[in-house]
Amino acid sequence: MIPSPLPGQPQLHYRDQSLYLEDCHLTDLARKHGTPLYVYSKGAMLDALAAYQRGFAGRRVQICYAMKANSSLAVLQLFARQGCGFDIVSGGELERVLAAGGDPAKVIFSGVGKTRAEMHQALQAGIGCFNVESEAELEVLSNVAASMGLRAPVSIRVNPNVDAKTHPYISTGLKGNKFGIAHEHTLATYQRAAQLPGLRVVGIDCHIGSQITEETPFMDALERMLDLVAAIEAAGIAIHHIDFGGGLGINYNGDTPPAADALWAKLLARLDARGYGDRQLMIEPGRSLVGNAGVCLTEVLYLKPGEQKNFCVVDAAMNDLPRPAMYQAYHAIVPLHQQPGAEGTLYDVVGPVCESGDWLGRDRQLAVAPGDQLAVLSAGAYCSAMGSTYNSRPRPAEVLVDGARAHLIRAREGVVELFRNERLVGG
Ligand SMILES: *Cc1c(COP(=O)(O)O)cnc(C)c1O
C-alpha cells in the first residue's frame, strides 16, 4: 500500500513508521507550524544542482535558476550562494532576486510580455541579458535602452519547433505556442536587432517546454540551435553565449527523466563534435532543481464515503497546490505515520475549496482517519509559487530543513493581510 521507495525524493524516508525529510520529523513540524505546510529539503536542492555542476565540470556555464518554479527568498538565497544566476519573468521576480542577495549581472529576463517599466527597471539593475520573444519587443527594448543612454544585452528566443512530448500547457517549443521567434524568421530578426541603436546582441536562447522526460527533444533543439548560430554568425553577427533553457523533468510517478549530468554529457559531446564546445553556455533549470525537494503537509478533516467515490477531505486545496487542478498533475500522497497491515480505502483526496476541480489526488489507497496527516510529494516546484488566496485562504507557512534543523522561511499569511488594500465605500 505504501509506495516504497518514495518516488523521486531520496531525502524523504520512514523511520519507525514516521516520515522524515532529512532528519526532521514531519509530524513535529506539522504540529509546530500547523497545516497546510510546505517543507523543503536544502540537501535535495543542493544535490539536484550538483548533478548539473558535475555535468558541466570544466566548461564555461552559467546556471540561471528559473525562479518561477519556487521563488521563496530563502530558496533564492540558497542558489545565489552557490553561484547561480536567475531566469526571471517579471519585475517582481527581479526584486526578489535583489532582496535575496542575488547578482543582477547573472539575471536573464524571459517572457513574451515585458512592459517598458520592467525593461527600465532591469536595465537600471544591470541584468545580464534580455531574452527577447518578438520583433515588437526588440523595438521597444531598443527605445527604452536608448532613452537611458544604454544598449540592452539581448538574446533572441528561438522557437525550434520540436515536440517536447509533455502536457500541452507546459510545451513551449512548437509552432502553435506563443513563445519565441519562429525558427525560419530567426536570422532576419537578428539582422534587425543588430541594426537597432539600443541593443547589443550577446546570445541565442531556446526553451522548449517543461517536465520533459526524454532526451530526444533536447538533442533535436540543440542541432537546430547550432544550425542557427552558424547562419547568424555567417551573416556577421557574433553569438557569445548559447542558452538551452530549462525543462528537464522529475520523477512524480515512476517518470524516468535522464539525469542532468548524463544528459549534459551527451549534449556537450554534440556541441564539441560541431565545434561549439568552447562557447559560454547558459541553462535555465527550474523544476529539476526544486521539484523533488519539497512536500506539502496536510491534515485529514473528514472522510466522506459515497456510492461512487469516497472522499478524503483535507485542509490543503487547489489554491495551495494548483497543479492537479490545472494540469491533472499527479502527486504521490503518503501518510506521515504508517499503519502497517492496515488495508486502506480508495479515496479522492480533495480540499475545502468550492470547485469540483479542487482535488489533490484521485483513487488513492489510504488508511486514514480524521486528524491524521498526509504529505503530498514532489511539491517543491510550481506548487507554492502558483498558489493563490482563492476562497480567502491565506498562504501556507514554509519551512526549509537542513539536517535536523528546520528554518521557518515563510510565516503563515494572516487573513487581515488578504484585505489590507481593500476599502469600504464611504458615505
Ligand atoms: C519556466 C521556464 C524555465 C524553467 O522550466 P523548468 O521546466 O521548470 O525547468 C526556463 N526558461 C523559461 C524561459 C521558462 O519560462
TrEMBL record:
Modification N6-(pyridoxal phosphate)lysine, positions: 68
One GO process term, biological-process aspect: lysine biosynthetic process via diaminopimelate
Catalytic center residues: 354 (proton donor)
Reactions it catalyzes: meso-2,6-diaminopimelate + H(+) = L-lysine + CO2
Keyword Methyltransferase: no
List of residues binding pyridoxal 5'-phosphate: 247, 284-287, 382
Listed cofactors: pyridoxal 5'-phosphate
EC number: 4.1.1.20
Binding site for substrate: 287, 323, 327, 355, 382
Pfam families on file: Orn_Arg_deC_N (PF02784), Orn_DAP_Arg_deC (PF00278)
Record's protein name: Diaminopimelate decarboxylase
Organism: Pulveribacter suum
Gene: lysA
